[in-house]
Amino acid sequence: MIGLWLVVAPPDRGSSVQDMFVAQMEAAAASEMVCLMPGAEPGASAAAFHQEGGIAVPVTSNAGGGDLPPVRMVIDPYPSFNGVAVDTANDLVMMSDTNRKSLLLYSRTSGSLSRQATTPLQQIMGPDTGVGFVAGVALDSQHRELFTVNNDVEDRMVVFDYDARGNVKPKRLLYVPHQSWGIALNKKRDEIAVSVQTPNMYVVFRRDAQKFDAPVRSVRGPNTAMADPHGIYFDETHNEVFVANHGNFRPGELITSYTAYDARESPQARPGGAVSEAQGRFLASSITVYDGNASGDVAPLRTITGPQTRIDWPMGVTVDEANNELIVANNGDNSVLVFPRTANGNAQPRRVIRGSLTGVKGPMGVAVANDEIWVANVGDHTALVFSRLAAGNVAPRRIVRNAPAGEETSGFGNPYAVAYDTKREQVLVPN
């Protein structure tokens, strides 16, 4: 592995974000050395690459003062898909990118079976956007607004107009609880629900809420049976909220206040129990379903959990309201599960998309529209489009690639620490 210091020349003022994105992908594809992922040629000439690609190679890392270039880098230069949302009225698809910290918009009919990267219509990326380690996304066709929520770090939801692109400021932002993950828009009620991992809850805001506006209601407490919730969906037709739970449960007494929002809520989270007696626990992964008007510590209407369900670290969830089906991005099993909408208990899925032909690898987001199921993979650089009735080990209809086929991912997207195992000579990167 060769050490490189990447210096990107400023783009021409006339270049679009789309042009820059495609140029970056093409440049990375032209030389494996840029990616520095498995497969790079260890004997490649750094000097030649400097001349051809405009990449500055550090002479030494012992320079006196100033910025020190890295001796070596492990970096994935491509986006990594996470959440996905579809707008059928405007034929748009938006996906969040946890690696490059951006939002990518494509045509709803994008994708092919080609091995080349798919060109996005636009990309929102840069320090002014407030887009960081983003997870859930939503598209509001009526108000032509794009929503995404930052998970783990920035603790805010940012909103853009449909025509936003590049390094633009959001039209508004909303401070949300720490570890907010999923977004669910209810156009009929003009509300947006946000799932929150550690406090085991979801909160519902007005669609146009901003800054420190309080939620209109929240669902939280031991009776809710939520445990590390991720994906969330607000079913407008049946007035129900679906939540995907990983199963990691932490009592309210153990929850630390990270943000101004958390500090405001903390008295409710610490109702007098002795902290020394509070203990977390691991529960089975599940899908919990609530009445759309639910508030407080209420029990779910239904809970899908058990070995027959095959639910394993569910991430994104969506409901095909017209066909009464629940669709789950099943991250732990590299599969997509389809249940009857009213499934309850230890229910078997109606259909399962899984196998080597499917390309499902680390599914994070899922959406259904126009008799198609969209699946956003974090395990490679793809989003997949299947027929709504797809089942078994079947190939997707189309593939949206954010990198040429075969490009490896780093496997990390939000590293907080790094450790070196001297015995095995391995670098450990927790996410």
Mind explaining what this structure looks like?
By secondary structure, the protein is mainly beta. 8% of the residues lie in helices and 34% in strands. The chain has a 4-stranded antiparallel β-sheet, with helices on one face. A 4-stranded antiparallel β-sheet has the order 5-6-7-8, with no helix packed on it. The protein has a 4-stranded antiparallel β-sheet with strand order 9-10-11-12, with no helix packed on it. Strand 20 and strand 21 form a beta hairpin.
How would you concisely characterize the structure shown here?
The protein has 431 residues and is mainly beta. The chain has helices at 17-30, 32-35, 46-53, 260-269; strands at residues 81-87, 92-97, 102-107, 122-125, 134-140, 145-150, 156-161, 172-175, 180-186, 191-196, 201-206, 217-220, 229-235, 240-245, 248-249, 281-282, 286-291, 302-304, 314-320, 325-330, 335-340, 351-353, 363-369, 372-377, 382-387, 398-401, 419-421, 426-428.
Low-confidence stretches: 1-22, 24-57, 266-276
Mean pLDDT: 84
Structural class: mainly beta
- How many alpha or pi helices? 4
Shape: globular
- What fraction strand? 25-35%
Describe the main β-sheet briefly. 4 strands, antiparallel
Count all strands and give the number.
Answer: 28
Strand order of the largest sheet: 1-2-3-4
Percent helix, as a range, is under 10%
Radius of gyration: 22 Å
Straight-line distance between termini = 23 Å
